[in-house]
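Q: My labmate handed me this sequence with no annotations at all. I'd like to see what the chain might look like in three dimensions before we decide whether it's worth expressing. Could you predict it?
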Amino acid sequence: MQAPATHQSKPYDPVASRVRGFGTTVFAEFTALANATGAVNLGQGFPNFPAPDFVKEAAQQAIAADLNQYARSAGQPRLVQALAQVYSPLFGRSLDPMQEIVVTVGATEGIFATIQALVEPGDEVILIEPFYDSYPAAVIMAGGRPVYVPLRGPAQARSAAEWTLDMTELAAAFSPRTKLLVLNTPLNPLGKVFERDELTQIAALVQAHNVTVLSDEVYEWMVYAPAEQVRIATLPGMWERTVTLGSAGKTYSVTGWKIGWAIAPANLSYAILMAHQWIPFAVSTPMQEAVATALEQSKARGYFDWLGSMYQAKRERLLAVLDEVGFTPIVPDGSYFIIFDTSRLDVPVPAGERRDVAICRWLTREVGVAAIPPSPFYSPAHQHLTDNLARFTFCKTDDMLDEAARRLQRFKHRS
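A: Here is what I predict for the chain of 415 residues:
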């Protein structure tokens, strides 16, 4: 029997172009390096301390109650009702839990589903740099084109608030093809909390160009006075054109549960649901029930205030160490990350490697404290802005932060 003819001019390549340019995430790379070298991992932003007992007990009770089958695709009724109860006062409106909230597999799926639902091939999406690294990937997989506008800070900036968005530069980024602007406040990795005046200017541009905003607010409970969390959806004319994302993983230190949510007007929520139903269809039922219980109890327990205070104390702990060892930290107004200046380090940089990447590999291997380079949070054209920067996280136990401090102090004394 004769074999079928082959077309030698076209080699077999089953991989779609939309993913061909993707590589391993910076988080996977540096966590693996930290594990291999025994470094204290202040790189990847996951808490290494237990979730609150009342949250864990709620999950155990939900499983024991046999709430283990498919959930409603848009979210367990109890969870969306709890979300509406918590967020209605924050948005200054009565949220419809069944039509204006979609529960997602973490905020990352909320990002992906929203972009899939709203972005057509050829549409442009404005991304503010630094950005969470899933944003451009989600845009590219939807056939859109990312357009980048960087925040800029003065030399030797000491506060994330000093990093500002040039509104003239932002205005120039809009075009007739602009469909979406992605906002992250508090912003990972910088810890900037956008002020009301900045958000008002962004809102004016968005409305003038008839654009939608995806507002990623997963660090909403980690905002440090005098900064204030202003939700762009609450500004005049913005509810109708804003999708707001939240995260149980960040709020309750359960990143492995992957429970997030999108809050938006009914037409946008429906579009997100139409994408979401073909991605996971539904989200873990017992984990949703547990998050519902947590939300129902959090106000009475004073949990949100406690969370902010707990992280502020950890922020101060790490800031003091960075100052002591001569790394100039940029004080974050929100989130659980600190960007710091590494310009005093004389570290060899291999040919073809970015300085911030080389510095973070050196810190992990030689000092024994893992950091994350910020360049993956920038487009290639703007990665030079991160050459002298690195990122630590402080969502770790005090014991772990103290061990990192000891290693950094030993490095200081021998350098």
